[in-house]
Amino acid sequence: KEGEPVIKFADVKQHNCIEKGIWVTYRDGVYDITKFVQNHPGGLERILKAASGQIDPFWAMYAQHNVASVKEILGEHRIGHLSEDEYKNLPPPFDPYQTDPKRDPALVIQAAKPFNAECPLSQLEKQEYLTPNPKFFVRNHLPVPTGDLVDPKKYALEIVPGEDEKPVRLTMADLQDEKRFKRRKVCAIVQCSGNRREDQNSVAQVEGLTWYTGAISCAEWEGVALRDVLEYVGVPSDLGMKSELEGEDEQLHLQMEGMDRPKVGEWRDTKGFYGASIPLAWAQDPRRDVILTFKMNGEPLPADHGAPLRCLVPGVAGARSVKWLSKLIVASEESQSHWQQNDYKAFNNSITWETADFTSLPAIQDMPVNSAISAPAAKSLVQLNAEGCVEMKGWAWSGGGRGIARVEVSADGHTWTEAELQRPEGQSLTRTWAWTLWKANIPVPPELQKPGKALTLMVKAVDANYNVQPESIESVWNIRGVLCNGWHKVHVTIQP
Ligand code: MTE
Ligand code: MO
Prior knowledge:
Elements (H helix, E strand, L loop, with lengths): L8 H6 L1 E2 L3 E6 L2 E4 L1 H4 L6 H6 L6 H6 L6 H8 L2 E4 L2 H6 L18 E4 L4 E3 L2 H6 L11 E2 L16 E5 L7 E4 H4 L7 E9 L5 H5 L14 E10 H7 L6 H7 L7 E6 L4 E2 L2 E2 L6 E5 H5 L6 E6 L2 E2 L9 E3 L12 E7 L6 H4 L28 E6 L5 E2 L6 E9 L6 E7 L6 E2 L1 E3 L13 E8 L10 E10 L24 E7 L2
Parallel strand pairs: 8-19, 21-28
Antiparallel strand pairs: 1-2, 2-3, 3-4, 5-6, 6-7, 8-9, 10-11, 11-16, 12-15, 12-19, 13-14, 16-17, 16-18, 20-22, 22-26, 23-24, 23-27, 25-26, 27-28
The structure holds ligand MTE and molybdenum atom (MO).
Molybdenum atom (MO) binds next to loops.
């Protein structure tokens, strides 16, 4: 800051077009982004909305800016700063999150705007099969949509059954008409691909929310089968499968768009919606149980979880279960959204932000086997029972419908004890969407059975296809901190 000019906010406001130059402020810094705007990855139109004013509210919404590399780019264009007085007296930037719903104070907040919070350990520790709605983790990229858009009486889902085909609109009444669509219930977890990212941070800092083990929760979702709805609007039920048999280039996809869009003041970004896609074959496969859901644990779908309608895709990365669903499109390409193309991909651990080529890897879909310890909590004091054991509890889960074959715990990393499993009722090991909860009494080696001794407790799970969790976190480390599934460990101390 020293030696840098002090610039008046009124001056910044004057610089609002390419001819006069485009200036913006971020916090108290002033930046001349005239040269940069032409190359803005999000397009010229969007960045011009921020011209000659504070970019803080825009960056608050477009989460892709919250990475060090973007802040560095901005730094290169710095030309000065606002005086301390003027910065202090600027009206607070518009807060697009002011209309977000109230949340349960027990949720562990990782970011307030957009709202991101994990299921509290105290809830995971209870080992309730279904996570109560207020305790279900929340992962939002944008403000929760409000108003007519999400009013169930005015809501309509738009479906484009194929390229060059006319869109069909279905209201909530249409979707809930039991004569038209059979009701379905699916018990499934939603897990963010960034769950357990904290463990990757302990190897080296990664970009993303610092999730511990609670970016996962389980609910019973009720709604209608996506395949029934697609068939109803004229998509042949074997279209997706046939397209896959033709080969990769012919594969069809089901694109989903959310109603959550960036907004600043009166302006709404019409293109910046949250979007994702899955292969059409999965959307139509009765074994994959993809549903359009409007009820969660027997209650109307809460605002944070996508009311009035969400596409729930079991077995895959949470990112594909699009909330506040506005549109479904049968298309020859994947969703072109940022979250399908340039995020949620796991690189090898020597790839940096400079060398990352997002086109080189597939979007994360089916998730790998994972597990975590919910009790005892990390850094806690533990008591040994009469047999010299510590009681451990936790969850295990694998993607693609693969159930959990086995969960093992250890206090030394060499000898493993099998945990007792509470498997989801009525789900086969080849079509399991819910988690497997587990409990174990882990024997503590005699030399460690002393008050004040430090213990490392660990868990690994094996899924029905015998996929196992890797030992090291380092081996799966990646810049985005996704798919962290190395053995989960907690360090505890024996009660003095
Ligand atoms: N859908 C929309 N429309 N907007 C979002 O921000 N986040 C996705 C997915 N669906 C998201 C979305 C991500 S990354 C995850 S992990 C899950 O929703 C989280 O679901 P939950 O908030 O119900 O736990
Ligand atoms: Mo996610």
